[in-house]
């Protein structure tokens, strides 16, 4: 089934592109969530007619996200976790911990934006990528220290 993407979708395409996807994926996932619509002749004409207005809106959103990315690049998140005598850390720092610390700094992001394959389970400083959009990303420094007993 051919669909018009209404929003950027990671590993599928950007807003406004016409993509061919499996029928079930379109009917059960993309369309109910408002991420795409079926690419009929009328829908394609309407999409082309509103292209200029949509381009202005996307440009202003991108400018705001670039500013947010600059703020995120300057942030260092600090965590303290208990460590055994052998140096093994109890617990970890997960996406949810990063989201909570960013929320304390008045920055709201979704967990799917954080590119962290697994929780951080070591003491040290790490860089975690946050993909605000497929073409706009920031790197947040995460500092994990040993908790004093």
Element layout with pairings:
Blueprint: E1 2-5, E2 18-20, H1 23-30, E3 36-38, H2 41-49, H3 51-73, E4 76-81, H4 95-104, E5 114-115, E6 124-133, E7 136-146
Parallel strand pairs: 4-7
Antiparallel strand pairs: 1-2, 1-3, 5-6, 6-7
Structure characterization notes:
By secondary structure, the chain is α+β, with helices and mostly antiparallel strands. The chain is built from four helices and seven strands, in the order E-E-H-E-H-H-E-H-E-E-E. 34% of the residues lie in helices and 26% in strands. It has helices spanning 23-30, 41-49, 51-73, 95-104, and strands at 2-5, 18-20, 36-38, 76-81, 114-115, 124-133, 136-146. A hairpin with an 8-residue loop joins strand 5 (114-115) and strand 6 (124-133). The strands form two sheets. The chain has a four-stranded mixed sheet with strand order 4-7-6-5. A three-stranded antiparallel sheet has the order 2-1-3, with helices on one face. The chain folds into two domains: 2-49, Ribosomal protein L9, N-terminal domain (Ribosomal Protein L9, domain 1); 68-146, Ribosomal protein L9, C-terminal domain (Ribosomal Protein L9, domain 2).
Overall outline? elongated
Give the number of domains.
Answer: 2
CATH superfamily of the largest domain: Ribosomal protein L9, C-terminal domain
Strand order of the largest sheet: 4-7-6-5
Share of helix, binned: 25-40%
- N→C terminal distance: 60 Å
The fold-level CATH name of the largest domain is: Ribosomal Protein L9, domain 2
Number of distinct helices: 4
* Mean pLDDT level: 90
Q: Taking Cα atoms only, what radius of gyration do you get, to the nearest Å?
A: 20 Å
Number of strands: 7
> Per DSSP, what share of the residues sits in E-state strands of 2 or more residues?
25-35%
CATH class of the largest domain: Alpha Beta
């Amino acid at each position: 089934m051919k669909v018009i993407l209404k929003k950027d979708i990671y590993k599928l395409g950007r807003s406004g592109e016409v993509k061919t996807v499996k029928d079930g994926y379109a009917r059960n996932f993309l369309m109910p969530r408002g991420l795409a619509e079926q690419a009929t002749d009328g829908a394609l004409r309407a999409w082309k007619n509103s292209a200029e207005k949509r381009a202005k809106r996307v440009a202003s959103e991108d400018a705001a996200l670039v500013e947010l990315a600059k703020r995120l690049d300057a942030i260092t998140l600090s965590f303290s976790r208990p460590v055994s005598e052998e140096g093994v850390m109890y617990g970890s720092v997960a996406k949810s911990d990063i989201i909570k610390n960013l929320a304390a700094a008045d920055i709201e992001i979704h967990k799917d934006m954080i590119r962290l394959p697994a929780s951080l389970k070591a003491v040290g400083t790490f860089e975690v990528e946050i993909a605000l959009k497929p073409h706009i990303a920031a790197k947040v420094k995460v500092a994990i220290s040993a908790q004093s007993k």
